[in-house]
Every structure is written in structure tokens, then in C-alpha cells.
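Posting for a labmate who doesn't have an account.
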Amino acid sequence: MKLWQESRTRIMLTFLVLLALAGVGSTTADQLFLRESRILPNVYVGYVDVGNLTSEEAEKKLSDAVAGGLPPVVITDGTEVWLIPANEINLKVDIGKSIGAAREVGRSQYFLQRWQDRWSSPSQAVYLPVVVGFDRGKLAGSVAPLSKQTDRQARSASLSLLAKSKEVTLNPAVVGRRLNVEKTVGEALSAPQQQLAFVVELKFDTEQPLLTDNQFSGITTMLASFSTVFKAWDTERNANLRLAAERIHGKRLKPGDVFSYNEIVGNRTQQQGFRMAPVILDGKLVPDWGGGVCQVSSTLYNAVLLANMDIVERTNHGRAIGYVPLGFDATVVDGQLDFKFRNNLKNPVLIYTMLTENELYFFVLGDAKDAPPPIELDYVVHKVYEPVEIKQPDPTLEAGKEMVEESPQRGFRVSTYRILKINGKEERQLLATDDYDPVNRIVKVGTKNADSQSVLQDIVKLPDKPQGQAPSGTITLQKTSAPVSTTTQKPVKH
């Protein structure tokens, strides 16, 4: 046992001595190499082989390679390529720095890295970039004019509609970009310039489109559409109409989402970009901010009905309007009356708008699996409220003259229905029963420079009637007007 322990001790001592000698040997070899002036084999600068050369020999070889002049500088945006002469930007190769970097291979400050470089050198080539210098101001001057060719505006994704087939085609979004000359010059030629070819990559600031492709994911068909007509000459009202429609355009609703018109369109104020135009207030047309936006909500209301979605909140106007069938309007008032509907379908829907010179379109787009059955919109008039004539004295008008201030318009009580045709049977859904007040004929009678007493004897002023009460002689009508159907809407390619 004692002999075994002595033998084991001698073996350990021998191993430690050999290890110490190896360390001394490797350190000595390392120090000898560091004094060696030659570059490691298999080292390239710009694809010029400078391996096993002294620094002076390598510098001469690289100088000879560029003596005939440098090739044109390649400027690219990743797709297009432009060439400029190297001397246009005073491009020069820094021979000393380029070869200095080659000589440092295998001479890292870290011992293990040095040995790794030396070990792999015979079998694995090392390619180093060429170190260059150039006039940054001149490069900027060469790059800046390219913006006319490279810049582009962001473009939102959009859809093309084929009304007959109801097919929807996606037009992909385009990310906008603007050439950043300062960034391009700042990062120019900083990447390794392999070979003796010099590439400058253009740098851009990007602009994201308002509508991306993802917002149209799952939108494959047109579920419903509806349009109304407006007067092309009414510029102030039309500006409001277009602004409201633009804010709704592209709105995506997931299943269960509730659309709020007031929330999406915002308050109709001057600060929000709306203009003064006529609105119905207490049964009369008066100027106010945002006049015309009710045509947008009413057009959308009909499109939503035809898409077979649920109505959450809707209110009729105080008097009948002409741009939609009777009973199919939806009025809105800031902070008071809203138009809301719910996406009760199984998949997302997209609300899409289009305006021509005098027509507003709403399209409800979605998944073909949610396509509604044939739907008709119908109404029944129960009562007609006849207007009366009211004459009012006007001291600013010459005696004997009359001026009609308000033209008469009938009032109505009407019920509206959505009729679904499913498997050859009709399902009739009552939507609402609404009252529309009559508009009385208001006549101003002049009293200026006249005996007011005698004039007033000829003026008839009827007492006000309670809201919604039908005057005598009111008749009850049966169903009127042709139904509005998805099949009778004017097809429009968007």
C-alpha cells in the first residue's frame, strides 16, 4: 500500500512538471509570434490576399490593387441601383488602417482568442473590410436628388367591390417612406466593404398607412349596401356629410361590438372641422354646426338593417325627411341622441363608405358565411297629420304684401318593418312606430304703414295642438310605397 502511494505521488508531480513546461512553451511561442511581423496566412483585405506578408508587402499589394482607380460607388434602396464615380465623393482607401487590421488577426489582447485565430488560420479564411474615407458633404449632394425617385406616400389598404358578384378584392397597403440623407451619409460605408466594391444603402423614415391589410382580414364579401342622394351645390352641408363619412370609413367591428355614431364621428363643432348648415330643431330648419350629418347616420341605418344586424339605439326626426323612405331615418344630436348598432354576426364586419359628386354609399363588408337572407324594408302609414295655415303680422313688410316663411308638410304616424325571406317564408320584424309632426304653412302678412287693427282682423292664427294629436279629418292609409330591397339597390363598383 505504501509503495502504491509513493508511486501515485511521483506520477502527479511528473504531470504537474510537464504541464508547467507546456505552459512555458506556449507562452514562449506566443511571445515569439507577437514579435513576428508577418500577417497570418489566409487573411484577405477586400478579397486581396495579404496572408504571410509583412505589413510593408501587404500595403504595397493593396496599393497596387487600387492603383488603377476605384470602381463606381453603388447606391441602392434594396431594389433600384444608382452608380456614382468614386472621385465624385473623394473616396479613398486607407491603406495603413486596412493592413493594420489584417496584422491584428491572431494578436488579440485575449490569449485564448489569439490561439483560436492561429489554430483556424490555415484552413479558414478571414475576410476583412477595406477601410475607406470620403467627403460626406459631396455624398450628401449626390444622394439628396434621389429622393424624387425613392420617396413615396403611404397608401391605406383598400377594397375593390364587384357589386354583381359581391366579391371583395384587397388592394394591399403601402408603407410610405422619405429619404433620410443625414442618416444615409452617417452610416455610409460603415458596413464591411467586401471586395473592392463600395455599396451605400439608402436610409428612410417610414410612414405607416391609416388602414393596414390586417384591418381587412376575413373580409371577403359585401353583406349589404345602401345609398342616398344629396345636392351637389350645397357645399357647407356636403362638407359636413363628407367629414362624418370619412370618420366612419374603415371601422371594423368584432362580433359583439357596439358601434356608436357619436363616439366615432365626434362632436359636431367648429373645432372638429364641421361647418354651419341647416338642421331640424323643434321641427324647424335652423343653421347649426354639423348640419347634414343625419343623412350619414340615416344612410348607415339602412345599410345595417339590410345586413341583418341588431339596432341598439335609434331615433326618428321630428318631421319627415326626403333622402330615405318614410320611417327609415336616424337622427343624432351631440350628447343626447345617438345611433348605435351591434355586430351580432359570427365574424367581424367592416363599414366602408364612398362618395360621388352627389351620392353617399355605405357598404357593410364581412365574411361570406354571414351573408344575410334576402331582406326587404317596408313601412305602413297609420295616420296623416294635415298641416294648417298660420298667418302672422310682420311690421317690416309693406301692408297688403304676404310672404310664405314656411312651406307646409304633412305629418305621419308610421310603422317600419324588416322582412326576411327564409326558406320560402317571410319573417316580418317590427322595427319602430314613429310620429312625424306636420309642418304648418307660415305666412307673414305686412303691417307696415297700415291700420294694424284692420289688418289683424284678416289674420287667422290657430291654437297650437298637443304634440302628436291628429287634427280632424285625418285618414288612415294602408301600406304605401314599394319596398326597399337589397336586390334593387344600384350596384356600384368601388
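Reply:
Got it, the C-alpha cells are right above this. The longest helix spans residues 2-35.
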